[in-house]
Amino acid sequence: MRGARMGKTGLRATALLLAGSLALVGCASDDDGGDDGGNGGGDGELRIGLAYDAVGRGDRSFNDSAYAGAQAAVDQLGGEVQEFTPNEDGSDRAEGLANLAEQGYNPVIAVGFAYDETIAEVAADFPDTTFAQVDGANELPDGTSKGDNVTGLLFAEEEGSFLAGVAAALKSPTGHIGFIGGVESPLIQKFEAGYVAGATAVNPAIRIDVQYISPAGDFSGFNAPDRAEDLADVMYGDGAEVVFHAAGGSGTGVFAAAVTAGKLAIGVDSDQYNTVDDEAQKAVIMTSMLKRVDNAVEAFITEFEAGDVQGGTDVLNDLSTEGIALSTTGGQIDDIQTQIADYTQQIVDGEIEIPTTP
Amino acid sequence: MSGRVVATLRRVGLSLLGPAIAVAVAMAISAVVIALIGEDPLEALEVMVDLGETPRAEVQSIVVIFNRAIPLFLSGLAVSIAFRMGLFNIGVEGQYRLATLVAAAAGAAVVLPAPLHVLFVIVVAMAVGAGWAGIAAVLKVTRGVSEVISSIMLNAIALGLAAYLVVGPFRGSAETASIVSTTPLPESAHVPPLTGLLTGLGLAEPRSELFGFLVIALVVGVLVAVLLARTRFGFDLRATGLSPSAASASGVNARTMTVKAMLLSGAVAGLVGLPQLLGSTYVYSTEFTAGLGFTGIAVALLGRNNPLGIAVAALLFAFLDRAALPLQSIDIPSSVVTIIQGTIVLSVVIANEVARRLARRSAEREAAAVTGAPPDPGSGSAPGNGPDGTQRVGATLPETTEPRA
Asked: Which stretches does UniProt call biased (Low complexity) (chain B) (predicted)?
């Protein structure tokens, strides 16, 4: 008896919940009155659209660096920056990018290779907007172009990683170092390949422990300091003396493990000596492999404003353009600067070929 | 006669109270959050419901909402089938990821005429989804392993396996590509978009295509609804969900039902990635939309495990997801949308319980008035029904609504 009545009530409640929600959605779709105004654009002022990689601004790394570049450009040239952060599963990347273009932001800069799939189709829809993609070439993997209005801002991560490997090997008397990658994807494998090549160039017999936090397709590895710390703990415990991480937000875990073990670590992307707050962690950050996304973004915007952007091409940032470098803050690699400068010269001169896959 | 009408009206009114309170509470909490970060809640609301300035932008927004709602609907549906049976299938995530990958790879490997090719991909995806869910089912009936634990574990394994397969044997993208993916599906495996339908209705042409999979999702939704509400199988499933011992006593084999329910749930889960696979990306890649299986749990809860309710819940979630874009234009972080979604689910669950108790009390008072008997002192705490969302694993489910004709 009771069960039957409960059921009936449940049914009614469900039906009404539906009706209520439908009404809510209905209201929402009907109301198209809201006129925002002021978004017209076209007054000649620089209006930059910046579409971030997952997580968005505040990652103390990649996205922040892109923002710093756009902000620096605005400080120089005037104008404004409109940001877009994709949702958790990244499913609204295309729509977010298109939204920026639709609202008249130009140039629109997408941060991260994750926009590979989407920027080509959005750029085709907005032929009058100039696009740039950090970490993505103009050419799609299948050989087609993403469009004449797309510029790829690329980085020779393997060159900087090579120098990181050189520095690590020089700072490891016993010849045992480590590498921790965030996600086992082609981009991060480029870091690994360069690092291994650099270390073996200095010491062919060196032992290099390589670990990735998460497999390809699972991006949790870029934001898992706890797992990074576990992996680094094991590496240091096994005798590794320097660990280089290319793991984004997980890097702090590597630094924490280095502090515990009293050993050294190498940061990535930005000068991590400056991004960590903890004095103890600063002490273990031997150097960072700098990937100057900020400079690349700022340079692109400056070129755009000057009307110099060709489009349909790539801009490669490497050691020769100083888009890639090793940081010296903290002074821990000052003693090996001669060797590093020597290798840098050889790379710039093309005397050293660095692999991009492990 | 008129007394019954009044009573029904009152009950309807009381039931309406649930969603009304829920929406009001969720709105209030979200408004407080927005105000706390120093933005204007009213402006936020205005921006959220504004679908665009031009007809084209409006249609585009609707397409975006539908394209997002279709996978969420399928995911919620998959979760709800297990829920109805008292099973908590948290494994939809792993089931759809693995199913989409295998279906993408298998679809690219065969040559078939158009309709058969699509059907082939769908069948493969459903089979893989069902098979993966079946592992949890078999573990439960043979070894008594809670499907909550096993499906979480199987998620981790599915993700790892999918990563291995897409990078290894199923890799179709160039070595140099940043995004590793399968070989693209040929034209014959594409589901044509429904955009023509929109323009045919006299609407402006949107920028994006409306997924043709919408039709398939609707068919699946109707089939599942009929199966659960109108067949012996559905009756047994719901009966087992409400009371395993009673169902067992009336001759339902609980073990068989567990396996069947999980297989069905997994088969529907296998479809979750297909709208995107067959409608826009045509490949499974390391960037393929993740997390739909988890959102599906919230959608099922919000839709109270009823196919129609799940459809509305999916649309509501998709509507809120789209709102994240214009919100960012007025400097409100998109995480506000996540907060709104969370508070809506929580509020709906709580409000439903409050409304249910009120309705119950009212009905009892009514009964007492008719029979002259005092109201049942034990009102308001019916056993075997936990609409507050607390899971009593394997015994009850959060809300088992009885769909009746």
From this structure: 368-380
